[in-house]
Design a protein that fits this description.
- This protein has about 575 residues and is an alpha+beta fold.
- It is about 35% helix and about 20% strand.
- The protein has 13 helices and 19 strands.
- The strands form 6 sheets. A 5-stranded antiparallel sheet has the order 1-8-9-5-6. A 5-stranded antiparallel sheet has the order 10-11-12-14-13, with helices on one face. It has a 3-stranded antiparallel sheet with strand order 15-18-19.
- It holds the Pfam family PK_Tyr_Ser-Thr.
- It catalyses: L-seryl-[receptor-protein] + ATP = O-phospho-L-seryl-[receptor-protein] + ADP + H(+); L-threonyl-[receptor-protein] + ATP = O-phospho-L-threonyl-[receptor-protein] + ADP + H(+).
- It is an enzyme of class 2 (transferase).
Length: about 575
């Protein structure tokens, strides 16, 4: 409303000045209506931005100006009509005559690039009078500028009154400079509009990261102080904390195997602690029940056996066996701990053991051939591990007898010194003679069909007698002896690695395939003829035949087999066999 009032006030004042100038003329008429600069300057000036114009589109009027207007007392309906010169921009070269005009006009315009153009014309309607001449124009001393360009227009009444020279524009600085400045200012504003939010966002993210880092350091310092205040009786080597089984999520697994503190038992690692301290490296093995990864724990390489969730029973059973009192042995895979963790929203069951870079006996035999000393070391160390499992140790904190039930070359690892260690106790059975208790794990998993004994294949095994499981282990170990002897160099000859019954059954034999070959046909692996001339291989051949005998009661026990192998090794002084067992 204020803007409209100001506009009306200025218009009325302008008309008053116009009337005054018109009435003060001596002869009372004029072809060119001209205002004096003093009257124009006496007009009250209202800021143009009150009418909604921005700064770039504002009007700047300086110097003396003229206003080409119709007389306020003139009635256009009775107004005289004139003839005018008419020509087009930019050079006004071809002139024509415009008839029946109320007014004549001529103009000069300078564009943004500084080029000037001239034109002449006439107004033939009342609307054109308002559009062409009822505006500020240049009289030679001032200018009307808009958006860095200039123009001047002179209106008059009379025949051919717009003849003659065109209005003159003042000499000004090249408008392109202002336009360039405007362009640079626009680019600067655009860059600021883009960069400011990015900078603010970056500062905010940096602050958040610093706060998170500070919070993490405080949390780690608090945990370190808490660990430092733990009772030393509840700590394990390499700063791993241990706890009673009742505080663990594996309470049901460990409740019968908690150490008494005598040092004979296995301290239990607190759950959700071990997995956080291990960094997984590369996958070194895969099977139908899980994967084996090499990990880094306190700067030391470890093997991490990751069970699939569907094979939780094997992980639970193996953890129970490893936690048995007096279970540790140089020919049993060293146990570090078990843990249950989650990776990518998938539950993982971890079993952490010592890492042996040579891999399994299966891998070792595929890559390398053996000499007689290496063969005897592998055979004697492997049977020593089985003997430790089969033997019950009596005492207040004794060890039950354990049958493996899945002896094969893939479950026997090779240490760097050429000795074997027994691994994978997911199917193990325990027996305590004093109580007569036999613990057979409730596990749907079955052993490897290729290594199953005849009584298992024809389902005549007596599951209530622990000795039956020992004899099953000895049958399978007889096949392992055959695999190792086959890769031993004798008389310059060595066979390629092949699994047992490779020439009789497919690579993944079924239960029926093995039952036909082992039980019905009573077939056993073929022995090469050159073994007969080798005292070591021929001696082991006799032992392996007693191990895989069809009758379980005839098979050699682990202790008898170990003594026979040691005797065989000591019979040949040229072997220089060192007795380290």
């Amino acid at each position: 409303m204020f803007c409209l009032n100001a506009l009306f006030l200025r218009t009325f004042y302008f008309l008053f000045v116009l009337q005054y100038a018109y009435s003060s003329d001596d002869d009372g008429s004029s072809e060119d209506l001209v205002f004096s600069s003093s009257l124009l300057e006496s007009m009250p000036h209202f800021p143009l931005d009150m009418f909604g114009d921005d700064e770039e589109n504002s009007l700047d009027v300086t110097g003396n100006s003229t206003l080409g207007l119709l007389s306020p007392n003139l009635n256009l309906n009775n107004h005289a009509k004139y003839q005018c010169h008419s020509c087009e921009q930019p050079d006004c070269l071809e002139e024509t005559i415009c008839n029946n005009a109320y007014q004549c006009w001529k103009s000069r315009v300078r564009d943004l690039s500084g080029l000037e153009s001239v034109s002449k014309g006439c107004t033939t309607s009342a609307e054109q009078v308002v559009l062409y001449c009822n505006t500020l124009s240049f009289d030679g001393n001032g200018e009307y500028q808009k958006e860095s360009s200039s123009y001047a227009i002179e209106c008059c009444e009379g025949n051919f009154c717009n003849n003659g020279s065109f209005p003159v524009l003042p000499t000004t600085q090249y408008a392109g400079n202002s336009e360039t400045d405007d362009y640079h200012a626009t680019i600067l504003r655009l860059l600021l509009a883009i960069l400011c939010p990015v900078v603010i966002l970056g500062i905010a993210l940096a602050i958040i990261l610093l706060m998170m880092r500070h919070w993490h350091r405080r949390r780690m310092a608090r945990l370190t102080s808490m660990e430092g205040s733990q009772d030393p009786d509840y700590t394990y080597r390499d700063e791993l904390r241990v706890t009673a089984a009742g505080d663990s999520t594996l309470r049901e697994v460990f409740e019968h195997s908690v150490t008494s503190g005598s040092g004979s038992g296995m301290p239990l690692l607190i759950q959700r602690t071990l997995a956080k301290q291990i960094t997984l490296g590369e996958c070194i093995g895969k099977g139908r029940y899980g994967e084996v990864w090499r990990g880094l724990w306190h700067g030391e390489s470890v093997a991490v056996k990751i069970f699939f969730s569907r094979d939780e029973a094997s992980w639970t059973r193996e953890t129970e066996i490893y936690s048995t009192m007096l279970f540790r042995h140089e020919n049993i895979l060293g146990y570090i701990g078990s843990d249950m963790t989650s990776r990518n929203s998938i539950t993982q069951l971890w079993l952490v053991t010592h890492y042996h870079p040579l891999g399994s006996l299966y891998d070792h035999l595929n890559r390398h051939s053996l000499n007689h000393v290496q063969l005897l070391h592998l055979c004697i160390s492997a049977i020593s591990g089985i003997l430790h499992l089969h033997t019950e140790i009596f005492g207040t904190q004794g060890k039950p007898a354990i049958a493996h039930r899945d002896i094969k070359t893939k479950n026997i690892l090779v240490r760097s010194n050429g000795m074997c260690v027994i691994a994978d106790f997911g199917l193990a059975v325990t027996h305590t003679q004093t109580t007569g208790e036999m613990n057979v794990a409730n596990n749907p998993r079955v052993g490897t069909k290729r290594y199953m004994s005849p009584e298992v294949l024809d389902q005549t095994i007596n599951m209530s007698i622990f000795e039956s499981f020992r004899r099953v282990d000895m049958y399978a170990f007889g096949l392992v002896l055959w695999e190792m002897c086959r890769r031993t160099v004798s008389s310059g000859l060595v066979e390629e690695y092949r699994p047992p019954f490779f020439d009789m059954v497919p690579s993944d034999p079924s239960f029926e395939d093995m039952r036909k070959v082992v039980c019905i046909d009573q077939y056993r692996p073929i022995v090469p003829s050159h073994w007969e001339s080798d005292p070591i291989l021929s001696g082991i051949w006799i032992l392996m035949k007693e191990c895989w005998h069809q009758n379980p009661n005839v098979r050699l026990p682990a202790l008898r087999l170990k003594k026979s192998l040691l005797k065989l090794a000591m019979q040949d002084p040229s072997l220089n066999f060192r007795l380290d067992f």
